[in-house]
Amino acid sequence: MNIKGYRGRKILSLILVAFILQLSFPVTVGAANNANLDLNYLLYVKNLLETHYFYETTESELIEGAIRGIFQALDENSQYYTREEFQRLTEELSGEFIGIGVYIKEDKGSIIISEPIKGSPAERVGLQAGDEIISVNGENVKGKSLEEVTQLIKGEAGTTVKLGISRNNNRIYKNIKRAEIIINPVEFKILNDRIGYIKITQFNPHTYENVVSALREFDKKSITNIIIDLRNNPGGLLSEVVNILNLFIPEGPIVHVKYKDNVEQTYYSNLKKPKYKLAVLVNENSASASEIFAGAVKDTKVGTIIGVKTYGKGTVQNIIPLPYGDGIKLTIAEYQTPNKSTINKEGIQPDIIIKSQDQQLKKAIEVLAQ
């Protein structure tokens, strides 16, 4: 036995025990169970930290940590957001923001442009996917985080930001005027002169209007066979997906939403006679509102679901702002398909299971051609 090591551990244990014995606990050992964990107990722990914790911390940091801790006891989709995080969340959900209109990512310590948004200031000045951002307004961004670079690029509409870009070992500098960016989550085209294709990347406030525009173009060419691509669509607004389903689903229930205390609300379609035949593409990243769409199409048999089983997020969240600009996302309900199938943690099983993305699209064209 390592006597020296053993004695060292024993001394350390004695120091810990001696310190613990000096603390005055307000409850007995036998009563220390979850039934006694109340706000007074939380304040007691907070006071202990403020009195004895070695490293410097602030009361606001402790309170933020406590709030985040509360949400760890809830489901994975309920979350607390700081002021900055909540601002980003609301921008993402609104589909609108002030900026230059570019998606960026962090890759091995570099900030890379994933894709400029179509029609944005970034696209107009010629920024390309794969460009590396090396400076913002003359400030070197090497070693800065994605969030730090994003904040440097942001600013008021109408103001200008100067980006330094590295492309193919050449340095390029672009002055870009910031503007209001509206994200169009819908892309559409015509395949084989007779099949409409609509890709929906998310259900934001602009999804319905852009789907209507796509259908209007298809109607001009008498196209009634349509592929709806929901692969990698994480979901979005319940109201948007319900409005869009009213364009496709026959009269009857679209989705059932079950709230606390056995309160249930059913959303209905008023469409007398569907005129479109659908093939819906899904994968393991199709979630939430995408699953509402796929579930309604499957149950009402107005189309064929093709791909692999969806994510299985069958819950509804409410976004609640808090007084200091922070906010929370809170699960308030679960939803079920028209036939009352539960989706949460189950997902939607496709009618035709195909793993290859290329083969999924090929199969959709084949199904609609029959």
Task: Walk me through this protein's architecture.
It holds the Pfam family Peptidase_S41. The protein has 370 residues and is of the alpha+beta class. The chain has ten helices and 19 strands. It has helices at 3-22, 39-52, 59-72, 83-94, 121-124, 146-153, 207-220, 238-245, 289-300, 357-369, and strands at residues 79-81, 96-99, 102-107, 110-116, 132-136, 139-140, 160-167, 170-177, 179-182, 186-191, 195-200, 225-229, 252-259, 264-269, 277-282, 303-307, 315-321, 327-336, 352-353. Strands 3, 4, 5, 6, 7 and 8 form a six-stranded antiparallel beta sheet that branches. A six-stranded mixed beta sheet has the order 10-11-12-15-16-19, with helices on both faces. Strands 1, 13, 14, 17 and 18 form a five-stranded antiparallel beta sheet that branches.
CATH architecture of the largest domain: Alpha-Beta Complex
Order of secondary-structure elements? HHHEHEEEHEEHEEEEEHEHEEEHEEEEH
What Rg, in angstroms, do the CA atoms define? 27 Å
Helix content: 25-40%
CATH H-level homologous superfamily name of the largest domain: 2-enoyl-CoA Hydratase, Chain A, domain 1
Q: Would you tell me the overall average pLDDT?
A: 91
GO molecular function: endopeptidase activity; serine-type peptidase activity
Protein name: Carboxyl-terminal processing protease
Pfam families: PDZ_6 (PF17820), Peptidase_S41 (PF03572)
InterPro entries: ClpP/crotonase-like_dom_sf, PDZ, PDZ_6, PDZ_sf, Peptidase_S41A, Tail-specific_protease
